[in-house]
Amino acid sequence: MGWFLEANFILIGIITILMAFGTLSTKKVMRAAAFLLLTLVGVALTYLFLGFEFLMGIQITVYAGGILILFLFSVLLTGHEEFKMDLEFAKENIVQILISILLFFTLTALMLSIYGNYQLTGNELVLQAQTKGLTQDFSVALFSHFNYVLPILGVLLFSAMLGSVKLVLREEEL
Amino acid sequence: MSEFQIVIQSFLPVYTLLFGAVILLILDWTIGKKPVHKHIMPSISIITLIVAGYMVFIRPKDPSSFPGNPPLFYFGEFYAYFSLLAITAAFVIVLSAWKDMELELSLGVFYALLLIATAGILIIAGAMNFIPLYVGFEVLSISTYAMIGFKKKSRAAAEASIKYFLLGALASGILLFGISLFYGATHSLQLTSAVNVLNVIGTTKPNAYGLFVMALLVVGVGFKIAAVPFHVWVPDVYKGSSLSVTNFLAIGSKAGGFAFVFKIFLLSLITIKSGWAPVWAVLAILTMIVGNLAALPQVSVTRILAYSSIAHVGYILIALVSYAHGATEMATIGALYHLMANIFMKGTAFTVVLIVVYQTGGDTLEHFKGLSKRDPLTTFFMTIALLSLAGIPPFAGFFGKFFLFYSAVLSGDTYLAIIAIMMSAVSVFYYARIIYVMYFQEPSEANTETKTYPRFFILLFALTIGNIALFFGALFLTPQLVEFGSKVAQELAQFII
Amino acid sequence: MTAIPIEYPLILSSALFSLGVFGVITQKNAVRILIAIELIINAANINFVTFASYNPNADISGWVFALFIIAVAAGEAAIGLAIFINVFRNFGEINVKHLFTLREV
Amino acid sequence: MSSPQEFFGNIADLIRGIPRDIILLLNRLPYVHLDPENDVRGVIVILMTAILAIYGLTNLLLAPWLERKVMARMMGRRGPVYVGKFGLLQLIADIFKLISKEDTMPMTADKFGFNLAIFMMGIATIMSFAPIPWARGVVGANMDIGLLYVFAVFSVFPPAMLLGGWASNSKYSLIGGFRAAAQLVAYEIPMMLSILGVLIFSGSLNLMTIVEEQYSNGWYVYRAFPGLFIAFVIFLFASLAETERTPFDIPEAEGELVMGPRTEFSGWRYAIILMVEYIHMYVNVILVIVLFLGGWDVIPVIHGVNYPEFLWMIKDNRLIQFLAFNVKIYIGVFFVTWVRVSFPRFRIDQFIEWGWKTLLPLSFIALGIVVVYAGLLVA
Question: Is residue D51 located within the same domain as residue D177?
Fold first, then answer.
């Protein structure tokens, strides 16, 4: 049962990982940004499968639509550099590659070790999420319990805006 | 008092700082091009900081009355102390940036960023949940990135900003991953959840999962507070950014970073303290040794002070270890006292470097030669600051180190105290070298500038008075100090059931 | 049951995290490093959403945090790319390998 | 024999039943087993979307024709006349012409980016049809986040434009791409802000709910006057800008940039881009109607006025709702054409400044009015 969703999830997951690998291995920085876009969309789709449609929308709107434009602009404004991931690269960075592979397996083993913690009740929640209604719970939580954190987020974005405008703007001398 | 009033009153300091920032921006927009603005902007910042400091005192008396179940914020003694720390640090930076930054365009933005960064520290100090904690931390970080790169024409500042940004962003990414694993284990983002919830990270000793979470968190915060081996950015960034920002990194950002560390390790990960105490002990030893030894061959005074600031991080990390091993009160007192002393010592030292750079155009020992002949008062203040950094009485640095080392002895980690004392002895060499150069060597031909800056004089005077007053305060008001320390320690411990 | 087993998203997130770490330690171009950091942040985000969705206590603060992280990442990316552009104006490149000027001073 | 009202009411149910039947059919085959209760959701969404998208696309054959005809009349010409009756099949002929052209790509182009940009835009536009309610209950995917979904899908456009502009390796394309991205990003913000007023009243991102709320309480364009009216005007301008229609076709600007980011695209790629542009415009018109002009609602309710029973019967009839929605869409398309013929183009700096310095503060004012009004309503 449920193989349809599972198969889709696995497919999207594999594509996401491939795209993430693409961001690191592709030759041009611009292409890396394009691959990043696809990765982000893939991650957004996993949110859909995890029952959090709202974050899917936010991820695509803010991340894929907003942040990525920043990336593309800055790549175009800072010039290209060719980079090649080939056999020579692999030889030079053999330690790094081994570290990341080791990290992957350790991390997977560790995270699966707490699976028992979730075995019993988790599935029901996801089922509930798929039949809608949790988006509303989420927004209620956001505007009741986390009411006082939202303005801080505003402060953060405000300071980021101030700083980046100041850094990029060309000013005439006094 | 209604819930709404409590919230408003609790957040008043933060609101004040933000209000000040907005006023500064409006002024920057209207009179930013006129020459008077370089005096108006810092003045307004100072007024804002004073008002915010006052607001900290009139926060609601009962911190547990903050709404929410469980509450996301707790505005107790810990919060009050760190807010005052942050506000004092910001005060010092405003006064030193008054001269340092005066030629920059859109000054209002700089001071607004400074105020926002201070607000970030306040939020860190008050947060009881990972969400406000992390967001406050990022408010601090993002404002700092922008402040470092603020001198756009300077190549060094650009380089410092890119280094600090890349490492900071990486650190916060790793930190986030650690928090996510923590959340997976405890099912809650409340800082105190690990204490109450049946946890998977280990009940008293961390299991493999707990160790991994801990490692990620240590790496994440280690970058921010510059513990060895995550310290590589410190000398370059301190050297590259303009000196008033360096000052902020050394005193303000550091206070925020330590508030963050204490929140994470003394509240949420306290159950697995047997796991992280040895790690921090090793890191403390490494930090002390590397910081002090690497400072020896340096010729740039900024770099010497940067390494010395790494070394001081090592001293404060002792507090974490001894807190975990039972000497909670003394460790708390030591850490809080040393962070305050740090403001006076480092604030003075970096301000003097700033003056010397203005007088001679460089910050190497060469430029400090014969400073006493040229500018005896500044030299005097610098000497006091350096002696205080070296931990020589009657200056605040002495008690800072004393409390920290004593807490190590109390908790049974005598080896830490011994290493720390040895390293302090090493540190005397490089501090003494600066003093020697200032007093006993003739100034080189080129450096004969004797211009003094009254604004700096006021600042240095205040800092030195504060330095000495802190020493005598610790000497004569020991019972009150101990009482305060135990109050904060109790506040931290009350969440552990 | 139609739910996806919790292993799948966790494996995805650990893969993204390792790829991100790999990118950070091998790449030289600052923009690429930032892209790798974005991968790490996304991995953490997947973890938050997963753990919140499968949470036995029905605690959805992980979802809230995920939303906050996206906003924070936006702020961080904005300031970071501004810094890169500023560095490019000063140095003519943003290859971190070549930014060594401060070492000698 | 049932009444037409019931008949068309049942059609939606019938259409909704089809995917379930398909699943049950599929289940008879070996190796395929779907749970109609649980797995059906994804399949329904896909199928309904496909059906309605096909309907929308056939509709679309009419929209460009209408635009050409109207434009020609306004310019004193006759427009397409030869292919089909009144030139109705002109678009099909054009598409055939474009598809049968040689498939060329600039030699120095970045193949990956060049193709990716096209596919992203094409897929995004077709996906954007999913949550649109055509009549009561007739909707592809009834999602909670409908509005956000449409915006999410459209927010892929600026990166795609920039990527396409960069990938063609031509200066016109690149400059056009920059302009397009800047324009889309600049006008997304007032657009979003103007929607917030609507969301305060509807309390949901679900397009169905939004329309239902207007059905019972009146269209948003005249509620909280003048707050939502200002929001409506802002949204209208912003969606014209988002779809790069004259007077906001800055990225294209034939005089300066040939065809903007699309300069190097030819053959079937150009056909796709043409389609994408029309669908984008079409969906934006639909959004304006759904958000402010009552969607499929026929007769606007006015607060305090009691309508007789037969008016409510008209309002409730799904066929009339469906037709009314289509009529509204065509009026919208006509309006867009009218604007295109009547106004000259903005200059890029004027245009961006107008977005940031006029529309943005104005949308804040509109939002403020709505908030005050809603607050009074609650109090």
Answer: no
